[in-house]
Amino acid sequence: MSAPTEGLAFQAFGRATRVRRTVPLRRIVMGLACAVSLSLCLIVSAILIVNARQAVQEETESAFRLAHEAVVRRLPPSHGGRDTMTEAIGLAEEIDGLRHVSARILDPEGQPLQHRAHGQLRSEASAPQWFSALMTPPLVEALVPITHYPNVLGMLRVAADPTDEIAEVWGDFSIILPVLFLAGLAMVGLAFLMTTLLTRRLQSVQAAMAQMQDGRLSVRAPDDRLTEFADLAAGVNALASHLQAEQAENDLLQARLIGSSEAERSRIALDLHDEMGPQLFALRAAVSHAQAMTADLPERPAALDETLDAIAGHALEVQRSARTAINDLRPMLLGEASLAELLAELVTGFRDVASETRVVLDVDPEVEGSSPGELAELSIYRFARESVLNAMRHGRATVVRVSLDTMPDEPGQIVVRVTDNGKGPQSGTGRPTPGFGQIGIEDRARALGATYLPPWRDNRLTHTELRMPRPCKLR
Ligand SMILES: Nc1ncnc2c1ncn2[C@@H]1O[C@H](COP(=O)(O)OP(=O)(O)OP(=O)(O)O)[C@@H](O)[C@H]1O
Ligand SMILES: [Mg+2]
């Protein structure tokens, strides 16, 4: 896939991923953990309350039945001689002292005659009101008359009393409920820890993948002690290694293609030079000979002079065109002169054809006389020529500077920069769509392991740069 198509494909992919709504894993896990913990607390509490309520009801009712039976049996109607009221008071105190039941003496109007013996003690250990309301079963009571025939002295009221049973259940609850709550909290905390751990590990793999996407295929996802993440990292790394190998093979193929295409161009240039050159030279020599011969003729037709002049002019033009074509196929000085001389010849050529633009060459003395290899020189030459042409054609620049330097931090690297004072690329902030010129430069740079920086604006100037390593991959 070529660079622009690849870029468009990535943009389309980016748009597609932006449109799709995604939900973070942490939000789902935390939401689920909270919901599960809360429902667990509620369900367990509800089951405990229902069971405890039933147990309270059963226990208090059975205690009530026993107490009621005892009262009925021990408090028969009196027909004189016995102090039934004293007996009833004693019985009431005795029953009131038992668990789960209460007993009180009421007057004939139903008003209590006696305070409960154990009521105060019991209320001290009682459960909170909301809990008592939740647990209290329906009231069960019975009134047994205290008689001294023919008078009814009062009533002995026996009732089921769940207070102490409820207090006991509350005692269990006040331990179970906080434990349940703490267990829920621990579950949420665990979910938080797990998601933090997982997202951190995923983020480190994602960071490595983002770097790979940027073209740094030598980056590797970090290894992990968790099996699943170690497998994921191994998978990503295997993919990166595979891509790296594929890219290296592509670069090699590209380099071979460029090498063979340059060899082909050189052969055509040589053929043109060797075949056409002498023939054109011979043609021009023959024409000038013919002109010399006709010049001596006393009466010659004017049309003959004009025709011979036209032949000479056309021969010259064909020779010039052939030279330009040969130079375009392979610079004549390549392999004969240094890189600086090659570029100097290029700049001089521009001065001849475009007088309205001043093209200057600036060569660092360190680079002068160096020869990074024929293919690298050719790529630098083609880069400089295309960039100067672009500055003239697209930027309408009046001054173009071609500089040849070395990088201070990488002394072996040759940096060729073309700077112009034109209006710069026109596509807003983004990079303009590359044409054949830039695609050719990029392909060559990749094959040679060089870096191409497409035009960028800085301080009202347009710069474009090629960084050629020394030695480059192909020589
Ligand atoms: N120095 C520059 N100033 C202004 N615009 C530039 C400059 N260099 C490149 N560009 C922009 O980059 C685009 C791509 O340049 P490139 O050389 O790849 O293609 P082209 O010149 O349009 O066509 P080709 O080189 O194939 O004949 C140009 O169309 C132009 O808009
Ligand atoms: Mg161009």
UniProtKB/TrEMBL annotation:
**Per the annotation, which location comes first and is thus the protein's main one?**
membrane
Extract the InterPro entries matched here: HAMP_dom (IPR003660), HATPase_C_sf (IPR036890), LapD_MoxY_N (IPR032244), Sensor_HK_TwoCompSys (IPR050482), Sig_transdc_His_kin_sub3_dim/P (IPR011712)
Region (Disordered) residue ranges read 419-438
Q: Where are the transmembrane segments?
A: 28-50, 175-199
Keywords in UniProt for this one? Kinase, Membrane, Phosphoprotein, Transferase, Transmembrane, Transmembrane helix, Two-component regulatory system
One GO cellular component term of this record is: membrane
Record-annotated HAMP domain positions: 196-248
- CDD domains listed in its UniProt record: HAMP, HATPase_UhpB-NarQ-NarX-like
Q: Do you know which SMART domains this protein is assigned to?
A: HAMP (SM00304)
Any one Gene Ontology MF annotation carried by this entry is: protein dimerization activity
Q: Where in the cell is it found?
A: Membrane
Name of the protein in question: Integral membrane sensor signal transduction histidine kinase
